């Protein structure tokens, strides 16, 4: 009996265990199916969010293209000063809205892990000049010194993503210009290897040995936590790195309001404001978060040091590939870049800079030397007079800092008299960082009015000022700061371009932009019309194609155009058609550039798959238009089509 009871108990236990196991398996399967269902919902929600953002972006960008385009055309008309101010304000507001859209899209890409970097060749110094141009008006209005210095050790050409690198620096400089009312904003770029010597110099220097003379946050603290460095007793030691890579360290230093101690921990948190939303100066709160992600994608680190009422210094590192295979190529490339791109007319000339601040003088010398001018430095006007009258050197131009000139006008007048006594007197320039100070010089200089060069200094602007005032060459006229106007005119003059867009406003904007630079433009509103016009042989040199159009979108229209071209090319190669019937062109391939308000990565990839050659986002800037057009027309400039 006991045996039977034992067997029964064991059987019941086994049955209970089996039943529990079956229930557990069923629960696990249910949990798995529920988890998979939640995963599908999350993926669907992510896709829906991406589609929603893309749709909203497209719907906002399309009318903004018309608004900004027409404002750009309005600026080219005869407006008085008040009207120009109204138009500039409207342009700034429109660009701010587009910038906000871009930041929201970037944040969505970061969250979905779809943000990717390009690897293209770019000129670092030219890129920083462009960024300076964005903030020059604001800095001059505030009277804030704005400057960039790039070490001679940094290669002229780098391989990386220039757009994203520009975005990081623009975000940091935008914050600085927003919260800085006096003093300076100073951007420096060095090789990481050079930072050791830089630290040693700075530790021995005064804390006020800065660009404007105001104290700043200790930049060494901004990179104190970087893994790139090993902390040692005497400073920092660089970790070993590949010789093919260029490791840059970029600092943006300002003398603004600084960041409160309690807010510093959330600086890089998305959508977080340093101050209360009702009193903040501007911004969305996601620029620094996006910058941190971009720096990480560039295999770098970012940090900051900030002291309330003193200022902030943001520093980040970024790894690029050198655009030069060896040092000899780099030297020849640098010489070529200086002589061709930055006006060879200045080669061999000598300049004297009068400036008591070593860092500010260093910045001025850096930009002037980019023109091929030999530069010497003195601290005050008395030393300048001694150097000029000494007869050891013949100076072609003198550049006097505004602080020195306005300190004692009697000494300045005596300095001018000494210059006039020289047989071949050098040309005198004053360096000013605010519009009001430049007007003061004009009013107080008496009979002799020196030429004024407004900061921030950039190579192209500096060359244009020197050419104009020294009479070296002044053949180019740039209206409203459009330095790309003449190059675009040279590239587009006489070109026949087809524009395809179902929106009449966008057609008018695109056609006006291209006609402005001498292109012959034909506009159509559908993909089918474009196919009929682009059937070989034809006389068009390029086509700007919208993507989202009714009946036939830009992707399908491009595919059919490429099939037509392939068919004609195959028939010509097989001898079925003669060269005359093909327009005397053996290989038909018209450049087709997508022109759309969609800026998501999937759209750009689809453009490449269907056979498009480039991409212009709406609202497009003329610089972007120039970059895309130059890829096809620059190498054939001057040829007959």
Automatic annotation (TrEMBL):
Instruction: State a GO cellular component annotated for this protein.
Output: endoplasmic reticulum membrane
User: Is Endoplasmic reticulum a UniProt keyword of this protein?
Assistant: yes
Instruction: List each copy of the Histidine kinase domain by range.
Output: 55-322
SMART domains given in the database record: HATPase_c, HisKA, REC
Question: Known SUPFAM superfamilies for this protein?
Answer: ATPase domain of HSP90 chaperone/DNA topoisomerase II/histidine kinase (SSF55874), CheY-like (SSF52172), Homodimeric domain of signal transducing histidine kinase (SSF47384)
Q: Which GO terms describe its molecular function?
A: phosphorelay sensor kinase activity
**Topology of the protein relative to the lipid bilayer:** Multi-pass membrane protein
Q: Which GO terms describe its biological process?
A: cellular response to abscisic acid stimulus; cellular response to cold; negative regulation of iron ion transport; phloem or xylem histogenesis; regulation of chlorophyll catabolic process; regulation of flower development; response to salt stress; secondary growth
| PROSITE patterns for the chain | HIS_KIN (PS50109), RESPONSE_REGULATORY (PS50110)
Gene3D superfamilies assigned: 1.10.287.130, 3.40.50.2300, Histidine kinase-like ATPase, C-terminal domain
Response regulatory domain residues are 350-470, 496-633
EC number(s) per entry: 2.7.13.3
Q: What is its main location?
A: endoplasmic reticulum
State where the protein is found. Answer: Endoplasmic reticulum membrane
Family matches, as CDD domains = HATPase_EvgS-ArcB-TorS-like (cd16922), HisKA (cd00082), PRTases_typeI (cd06223), REC_hyHK_CKI1_RcsC-like (cd17546)
What is the name of the protein in this document? histidine kinase
What is the scientific name of the source organism?
Answer: Rhizophora mucronata (Asiatic mangrove)
């Amino acid at each position: 009996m006991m045996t039977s009871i034992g067997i029964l108990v064991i059987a019941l236990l086994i049955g209970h265990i089996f039943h529990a196991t079956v229930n557990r398996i069923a629960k696990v399967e249910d949990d798995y199916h529920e988890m998979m269902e939640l995963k599908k919902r999350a993926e669907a929600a992510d896709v829906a969010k991406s589609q929603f953002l893309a749709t909203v972006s497209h719907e906002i960008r399309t009318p903004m293209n018309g608004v900004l385009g027409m404002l750009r055309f309005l600026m080219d008309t005869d407006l008085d000063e008040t009207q120009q101010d109204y138009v500039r304000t409207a342009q700034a507001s429109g660009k701010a809205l587009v910038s906000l859209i871009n930041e929201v899209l970037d944040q969505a890409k970061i969250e979905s892990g779809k943000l990717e970097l390009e690897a293209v060749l770019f000129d670092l110094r030219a890129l920083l000049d462009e960024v300076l141009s964005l903030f020059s008006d604001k800095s001059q209005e505030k009277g804030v010194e704005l400057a960039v210095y790039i070490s001679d050790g940094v290669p002229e050409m780098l391989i990386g993503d220039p757009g994203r690198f520009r975005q990081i620096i623009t975000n940091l400089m935008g914050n600085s210009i927003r919260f800085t009312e006096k003093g300076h904003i100073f951007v420096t770029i060095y090789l990481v290897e050079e930072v050791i010597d830089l630290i040693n110099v700075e530790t021995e220097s005064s804390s006020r040995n800065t660009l404007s003379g105001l104290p700043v946050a200790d930049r060494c603290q901004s990179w104190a936590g970087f893994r790139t460095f090993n902390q040692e007793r005497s400073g920092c030691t660089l970790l070993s790195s590949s010789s093919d890579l260029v490791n840059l360290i970029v600092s943006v230093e300002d003398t603004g309001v600084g960041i409160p101690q309690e807010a510093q921990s959330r600086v890089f948190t998305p959508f977080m404001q340093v101050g209360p939303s009702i009193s903040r100066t501007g911004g969305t709160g996601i620029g620094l978060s996006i910058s941190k992600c971009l720096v990480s994608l560039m295999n770098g680190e970012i940090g900051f040091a900030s002291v309330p009422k003193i200022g902030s210094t943001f520093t980040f590192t970024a790894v690029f590939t050198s655009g030069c295979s060896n040092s000899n190529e780099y030297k020849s490339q640098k010489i070529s870049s200086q002589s061709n791109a930055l006006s060879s007319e200045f080669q061999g000339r000598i300049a004297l800079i009068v400036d008591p601040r070593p860092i500010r003088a260093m910045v001025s010398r850096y930009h002037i030397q980019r023109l091929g001018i030999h530069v010497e430095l003195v601290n005050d006007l008395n030393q300048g007079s001694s150097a000029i009258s000494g007869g050891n050197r013949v100076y072609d131009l003198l550049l006097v800092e505004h602080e020195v000139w306005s300190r004692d006008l009697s000494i300045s007048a005596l300095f001018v008299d000494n210059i006039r006594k020289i047989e071949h007197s050098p040309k005198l320039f004053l360096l000013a960082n605010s519009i009001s100070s430049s007007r003061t010089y004009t009013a107080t200089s008496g009979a002799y009015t020196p030429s004024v060069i407004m900061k921030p200094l950039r190579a192209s602007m500096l060359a244009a000022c020197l050419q104009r005032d020294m009479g070296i060459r002044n053949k180019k006229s740039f209206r409203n700061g459009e330095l790309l106007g003449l190059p675009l005119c040279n590239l587009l003059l006489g070109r026949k371009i087809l524009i395809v867009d179902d929106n009449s406003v966008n057609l008018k904007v695109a056609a006006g932009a291209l006609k402005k630079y001498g292109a012959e433009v034909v506009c159509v509103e559908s993909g089918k019309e474009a196919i009929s016009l682009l059937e070989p042989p034809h006389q068009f040199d390029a086509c700007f194609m919208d993507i989202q159009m009714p009946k036939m979108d830009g992707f399908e229209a491009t595919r059919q155009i490429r099939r037509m071209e392939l068919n004609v090319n195959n028939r010509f190669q097989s001898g079925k058609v003669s060269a005359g019937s093909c327009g005397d062109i053996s290989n038909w391939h018209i450049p087709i550039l997508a022109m759309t308000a969609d800026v998501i990565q999937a759209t750009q990839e689809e453009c490449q798959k269907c056979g498009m050659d480039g991409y212009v986002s709406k609202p497009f800037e003329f610089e972007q238009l120039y970059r895309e057009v130059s890829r096809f027309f620059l190498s054939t400039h001057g040829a007959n089509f």
